[in-house]
Amino acid sequence: MRADARRNLDKIVAAAAEVVAERGVNVPMEAIAKRAGVGVGTLYRRFPDRHALIAAVGDHYIHTMADALDEAAKSTTDAWSAIEEFVSWVAAPGRAALATALAELPEEAIVDRAEFARAREGWVERFDALVRRAQAEGSMRADVGVDDLIHLLNVFTCHPDALPGPVAASPGKYLRLMLDGMKATAATPLPDVPS
User: Fold this and answer.
1) Separation CA 58–CA 64 (nearest Å)
2) DSSP letter string over 35-72?
């Protein structure tokens, strides 16, 4: 693909991600074309239907998360700070809105796709390495893992409607409180709970 065609494609997908975050996955294709500054015909030449475009938005979302994780790991001096920075980035309102919109889709629309699965696997592996590093540095409690952080992000970003009203009204506050509970300095033994 030529460089200008790639830029055009990236512009369409980024615009689609913005509009889907604002208006949901059923937003008219015309609204996405308008935001991207392209004609509807150009949009349909790149993406034959909504399913293809939303799948590309899912890929864009997971790659953007991976890039943000890598950036947080590079820009901080310790692993726990990188985890805090990354979790705050993921839970920012616009990105959380996109995650919420994508979570409304049937799983096979995004999650079961090979490209998405590979990208997600790589992102989880890097996130897990960061968690293990924070534990080795003594800043994160040893009895929680990457799955716990992913579950936490899933609730706060993909399913805000499942949160109690006061938590949904101030998600940053409660996310911070939950993160603080994962610090090694705050650790008290967890009860034995069946997995």
Assistant:
1) 10
2) HHTS-HHHHHHH-SSHHHHHHHHHHHHHHHHHHHHHHH
Residue with tokens 């996310």: 175
Is 4 a domain residue? Answer: no
Task: Give the pLDDT confidence of 66-75 residue by residue, as tens digits.
Answer: 999 999 999 9
CATH code for position 68: 1.10.357.10
Nearest to 156 by CA among 82, 100, 83, 84: 100
Q: Are 140 and 183 in contact (CB under 8 A)?
A: yes
Domain count of the fold of the chain: 1
Which of the four pLDDT bands, split at 50, 70 and 90, describes residue 82? very high
Residue 129: predicted pLDDT: 96
> Does residue 25 sit within a domain?
no
**Residue numbers of the domain that contains 62:** 52-186
